[in-house]
RNA sequence: GCUGAUAUAGCUCAGCUGGCUAGAGCACCUGAUUCGUAAUCAGGAGGUCGCGGGUUCGAGUCCCGCUAUCAGCUCCA
């Protein structure tokens, strides 16, 4: 991804890779390392590991010089760079990062050697006796010996690896400052965390910073405002999205596409109420397990809860009439609006909200049907993901320690999930013990434009709710049996999915989803009638268009139209009216061409068809 | 929820260490202009400076509380 550095730095060896993959630095192997692969300074994963870890230490050294009372916890390398957690009496803000960077650059110029020595753990405990954070680190180290790295006056307990001296650490950038719980424990003290990124060469750093800029440009919150898709209102409440006309058009198109694909796959639409008596939630277990996330209220002395999930509605509809084995598998689906009281700090545009709509379905089936049903759902997921060009990965989560149901059923269900994926030639990871208490599941994770992973689709096998609600069917031998319930969502939620779509396409939605698919720009006012005529034809064909015929210059209206990122901007003037044609600016092809109005309509209808799943 | 930061017109932002009627660009309204592929000109209107307290002769500016947003942490579709 990043350009290979071409400069002499590649001659500098900063460590060795052992056959087992372990990295040793030059401090640990001053004589070299026999049978090891040398690691030249560069952008290989191993070199970056060393580089970034050392940059983290360099940052700590700079922070110590600027804030002498700073105490350090840990400073690891992570996917997107490195960070260091620490505590100081002074508050550190974004504007202080420059100061720290400056100090780091001074230290780089000095080319301070980075030395390593090893002491007994007990010695280390004594050495850092006044530093409770280091004591916490030491408590987590099982070995009897610990290593310490020293650069100038700065020393830190560390396993390494590090570069030989600070002069090799030119290309870095501190990216943000934030708080982080000590040891990741919500109830523990909060430390200051500074994040940074480092590369072996300047070009790669530049590329990375450009990528971050691009991510900002694609941010669905920014695009959502620019394209007038959705909004929030401070007085209405946090995490409660409003869909504006263009956003609602986009969403409605997605809903319709998905609705058809559900019907074609044999799903029956159902709809449950938004609010149910709290006793229902007690029976389901939500009240106990999920209660703090639920919105509860009292009506006529009865406690009610706004639904955080749609399962109960579907179960009650199933139970309303007797079911036979002939009815199974029975697939109920609903665009279910749910409310969950998410913590205020986690709300994030449309990606994390308090009211959202799931493309939810519950499939009631026999244990034998689990496998084919799951296979069908996975194929459905794959078709949808392919339609939008998403990369995704899947994970099977197996039986957790606290679980209900006997092992044999768990085994059958888990095996069914695995086989379904294997037979579909799909790869998956295993999250051992990560299942829900009622059954194993497959999670579908989409990778978005910035490389973030989002859990969207999910397929869960549930033996619990059928039991709790006494759900039954009559089998061929006239005995009453318990069906299995499969909970599944393909998109996850329309809100989150549309956020990801927006960033994925950078606001340039494919034709079949675009809120406005065509913008007409009549050259002069007398051409508006022709534009209106075409616009109405389009609406008949299910295509949304707008006419930009305000009293502005032609250039300005074209500019405004282009800024909407619509697939087609159509210019019409005397020539077009005369020949019943259109002059098209095609955003996808980045071309301009003329064709007859009829041919254009045909082209658009064909493109609408591309939206079918 | 926690840590830190931010909140000025519909949007993006000025407004120095508290000092007379709070500025700009875009958007909006009116008029002129009717144009062949990314910003025509002129005029106008629009803000109890997020909300509520406090300090002060005087608060957009300082302090406290609340609300919302942002960066993370913890959690999740």
Question: TL;DR?
Answer:
The protein has 613 residues and is α+β, with helices and mostly antiparallel strands. The protein is built from 18 helices and 31 strands.
Structure description:
- The chain is an alpha+beta fold and 613 residues long.
- 34% of the residues lie in helices and 28% in strands.
- The strands form 8 sheets. An 8-stranded mixed β-sheet has the order 14-18-19-26-23-22-20-21, with helices on both faces. Strands 4, 5, 6, 10 and 11 form a 5-stranded antiparallel β-sheet that branches. It has a 5-stranded mixed β-sheet with strand order 28-27-29-30-31, with helices on both faces.
- Helix 1 (45-66) crosses helix 2, helix 6 packs across helix 14 (494-504) and helix 11 (370-387) crosses helix 12 (407-423).
- It starts with 12 loop residues before the first strand and ends with a helix.
- Mean pLDDT is 90; it is low at 1-9.
- The chain binds one RNA strand of 77 nucleotides through strand 10, strand 11, helix 6, strand 19 and strand 23.
What are the SSEs and their pairings?
Elements: E1 13-17, E2 23-25, E3 37-40, H1 45-66, E4 71-72, E5 77-78, E6 81-87, H2 96-109, E7 114-120, H3 121-127, H4 132-139, E8 145-151, E9 154-157, E10 171-181, E11 190-199, H5 202-218, H6 220-226, E12 230-233, E13 237-243, H7 245-264, E14 268-269, E15 275-277, H8 278-284, H9 286-290, E16 296-299, E17 302-306, H10 311-320, E18 330-339, E19 355-365, H11 370-387, E20 391-397, H12 407-423, E21 429-431, E22 441-447, E23 453-462, H13 464-468, E24 473-474, E25 480-481, E26 484-489, H14 494-504, E27 518-522, H15 528-540, E28 545-547, H16 554-563, E29 568-572, H17 574-579, E30 581-586, E31 591-596, H18 597-609
Parallel strand pairs: 14-18, 20-21, 27-28, 27-29
Antiparallel strand pairs: 1-2, 1-3, 4-6, 5-6, 6-11, 7-8, 8-9, 10-11, 12-13, 15-17, 16-17, 18-19, 19-26, 20-22, 22-23, 23-26, 24-25, 29-30, 30-31
Helix pairs in contact: 1-2, 6-14, 11-12
The protein binds one RNA strand of 77 nucleotides through β10, β11, α6, β19 and β23.
């Amino acid at each position: 991804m990043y350009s290979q550095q071409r400069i002499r730095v590649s001659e500098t060896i900063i460590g060795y890779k052992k056959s087992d993959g372990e990295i040793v630095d030059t401090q640990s192997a001053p004589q070299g390392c026999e049978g090891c692969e040398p690691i030249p300074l560069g952008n290989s994963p191993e070199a970056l590991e060393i580089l970034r870890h050392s940059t983290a230490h360099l940052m700590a050294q700079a922070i110590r010089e600027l804030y002498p009372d700073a105490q350090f916890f840990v400073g690891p390398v992570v996917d997107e760079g490195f960070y260091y957690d620490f505590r100081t009496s002074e508050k550190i803000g974004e504007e202080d990062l420059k100061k720290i960077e400056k100090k780091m650059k001074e230290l780089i110029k000095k080319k301070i050697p980075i030395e390593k020595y090893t002491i007994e753990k007990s010695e280390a405990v004594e050495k850092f006796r006044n530093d409770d954070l280091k004591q916490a680190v030491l408590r987590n180290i099982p070995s009897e010996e610990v290593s310490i790295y020293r650069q100038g006056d700065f020393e830190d307990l560390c396993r390494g690896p590090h570069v030989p001296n600070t002069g090799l650490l030119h290309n870095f950038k501190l990216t943000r400052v934030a708080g982080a719980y000590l040891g990741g424990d919500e109830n523990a003290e909060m430390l200051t965390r500074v994040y940074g990124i480092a590369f072996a060469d300047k070009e790669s750093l530049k590329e990375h910073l450009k990528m971050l800029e691009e991510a900002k440009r694609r941010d669905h919150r920014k695009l959502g405002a620019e394209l007038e898709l959705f909004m929030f209102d401070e007085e209405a409440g946090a995490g409660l999205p409003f869909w504006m006309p263009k956003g609602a058009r986009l969403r409605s198109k997605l809903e319709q596409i998905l609705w058809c694909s559900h019907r074609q796959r044999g799903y029956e639409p159902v709809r449950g109420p938004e609010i149910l008596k709290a006793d229902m939630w007690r029976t389901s277990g939500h009240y106990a397990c999920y209660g703090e996330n639920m919105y509860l209220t009292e009506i006529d002395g009865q406690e009610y809860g706004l639904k955080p999930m749609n399962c109960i509605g579907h179960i009650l509809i199933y139970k309303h009439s007797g079911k036979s084995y002939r009815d199974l598998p029975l697939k109920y689906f609903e665009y279910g609006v749910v409310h969950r009281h998410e913590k205020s700090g986690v709300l994030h545009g449309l990606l994390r909200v308090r009211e959202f709509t799931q493309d939810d379905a519950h499939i009631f089936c026999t244990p034998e049907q689990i496998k084919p049903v799951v296979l069908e759902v996975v194929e459905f997921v794959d078709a949808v993901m392919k339609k939008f060009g998403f990369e995704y990965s899947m994970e099977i989560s197996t039986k957790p320690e606290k679980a209900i149901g006997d092992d044999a059923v768990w085994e059958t269900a888990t095996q069914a999930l695995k086989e379904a994926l294997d037979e579909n030639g799909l790869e998956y990871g295993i999250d051992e013990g990560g299942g829900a208490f009622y059954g194993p599941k497959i999670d579908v994770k989409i990778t978005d434009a910035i490389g973030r992973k989002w859990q969207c689709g999910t397929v869960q096998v549930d033996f619990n709710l059928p039991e709790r609600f006494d759900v039954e069917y009559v089998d061929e031998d006239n005995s009453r049996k318990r069906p299995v319930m499969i909970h599944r969502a393909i998109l996850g939620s329309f809100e989150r999915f549309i956020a990801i779509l927006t960033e994925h396409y950078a606001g340039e939605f494919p034709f079949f989803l675009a809120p406005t698919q065509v913008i007409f720009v009549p050259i002069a006012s007398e051409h508006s009638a022709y534009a209106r005529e075409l616009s109405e034809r389009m609406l008949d064909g299910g295509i949304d268009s707008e006419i930009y015929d305000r009293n502005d210059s032609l250039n300005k209206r074209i500019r405004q139209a282009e800024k909407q990122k619509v697939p087609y901007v159509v210019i019409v003037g005397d020539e077009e009216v005369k020949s019943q044609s259109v002059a098209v600016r095609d955003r996808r092809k980045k071309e301009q061409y003329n064709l007859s109005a009829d041919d254009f309509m045909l082209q658009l209808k064909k493109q609408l068809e591309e939206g079918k799943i």
